[in-house]
Amino acid sequence: MSTPIGIALFDTAIGRCGIAWSDAGVLGVQLPEARPTETLSRMQRRFAGAALTAEPPAHIAAAIAAIGALLDDGRADLTSIALDMDGVPEFHRRVYEVARTIPAGRTLAYGEIAKRLGEPDAARAVGAALGKNPFAIVVPCHRVLAASGKIGGFSASGGVTTKLRLLSLERASAARGDLFDGDRGFAFDPDAALEHLKSADPALARLIETVGPFRMELKHAASVFAALAESIVYQQLNGRAAETIFARVRALFPRGHEGPTPEQILRAPDAKLRGAGLSQAKLLALRDLAKRTVAGELPTLDEIGAMDDETVIERLTVVRGIGRWTAEMLLMFRLGRPDVLPVDDYGIRKGFGLAFQKKNAIADKADVERRGRRWRPYRTVASWYLWRAAERV
Asked: How far lies 44's CA from each of 82, 132, 307, in Å?
């Protein structure tokens, strides 16, 4: 193995990662451990003698930037990053070279990689090689699934949850733009919205200037079922707990990174779904959502595109566990609708009180509705700034 020269830690959307390098290229990448100190300790054990540095050389800095970009929005191409495979077994090296050809948003099975290597019976050996992958993310072992489409294992911290998160991020990035208009997916021009809001409401204009640029991000929706199923699981949970439970649910099924299908939810035993962490109420809500989807009672994404906001809300809230707020979140963060103002939202009303009533109190929703009339037809953008106001306390 080449002599390690340096290691560095760097922050990403999934936590603090580590990278090590030699004269020949990247020697290893470490995904986040539970705590940054543990990530550093793991790197120092893996690459004994390497110096920790805050200023890595230019080619390593470029690799760090690319890895960070991929973990942020799933779009970066890491195939040009030079890897130092001195000391990597020859079979493992061949596996890694094939894995690096898998595009973001796509997957292969262990057996498919074995066939590409000309060794169709070597699926287990492929799995073992990927289990020892020292170049996490750069060699995208997270894009390799079991033959059944099941997610399989993942050696990084977080296990299957981390693997599903990476696959979902990349799949969403690959599909971004298929369902929505415009570069950022909004059904409106954010710049035009800001100009309108500043002109219509000087007090809101001051909040906009204080908060800064509009950075709301949309989340890709493969289907109405997929979006609402995730919303049901996330209800009344903090983000980390909800992400873990939803990952366990998805991991129960083949190609779980694409999300469970209505048919899979209907066929799964109660004990299996409850074992993933679902409460009884959420299990019943998911089953009702699946049943209505299979029966054709819910609109498709294409059908929703032709509906006004209130009709969408009316059609979706027939589902057990789906209220107006959940439907509004889908309109805003999945569909990019311009004129949604969720007046029942705690953060909206708190932000409104701070921004317009100059007190740390929860505003009455009638006050929010009344002032919100001047923000039409861009109340979604105004809502995003009210949430930011609530966060600034």
From this structure: 21, 17, 56
| Distance, first Cα to last Cα, the chain | 52
- Where along the chain do its domains lie? 1-175, 190-217+340-391, 224-333
Q: Across the strands, what pairs with 15?
A: 12
* Digitized pLDDT (tens) for each residue of the chain, 393 residues in all: 678 899 999 998 888 999 999 999 999 999 988 888 999 999 999 999 899 998 999 999 999 999 998 887 777 889 999 999 998 999 999 999 999 999 887 888 899 999 999 999 999 999 999 989 999 989 998 888 877 676 766 655 566 667 777 777 676 555 544 433 333 468 788 999 999 999 999 999 999 999 999 999 888 777 899 999 999 998 888 777 888 898 889 888 887 777 789 999 999 999 999 999 999 999 999 999 999 999 999 998 888 888 999 999 999 999 999 999 999 999 999 889 999 999 999 999 999 999 998 776 889 999 999 999 999 999 999 999 999 999 876
Catalytic residue, from 73, 178, 345, 364: name it.
Answer: 345
For residue 346, report the phi and psi dihedrals to the nearest 5 degrees: -60, -45
Nearest residue to 232 via CA among 304, 285, 157: 285
345 an active-site residue? yes
* Nearest by Cα to 21 from 103, 112, 76, 82: 82
Q: Find out whether 196 and 190 touch, Cβ atoms under 8 Å.
A: no
Selected from 3.30.70.270, 2.30.30.220, 1.20.1290.10, 1.10.10.10, the CATH number assigned to the domain covering 1-175 reads 1.10.10.10
Give this prediction's pTM: 0.62
Match domain 190-217+340-391 to its CATH number in 3.10.180.10, 3.60.21.10, 1.10.1670.40, 3.40.718.10.
1.10.1670.40
Q: What is the CATH number of domain 224-333?
A: 1.10.340.30
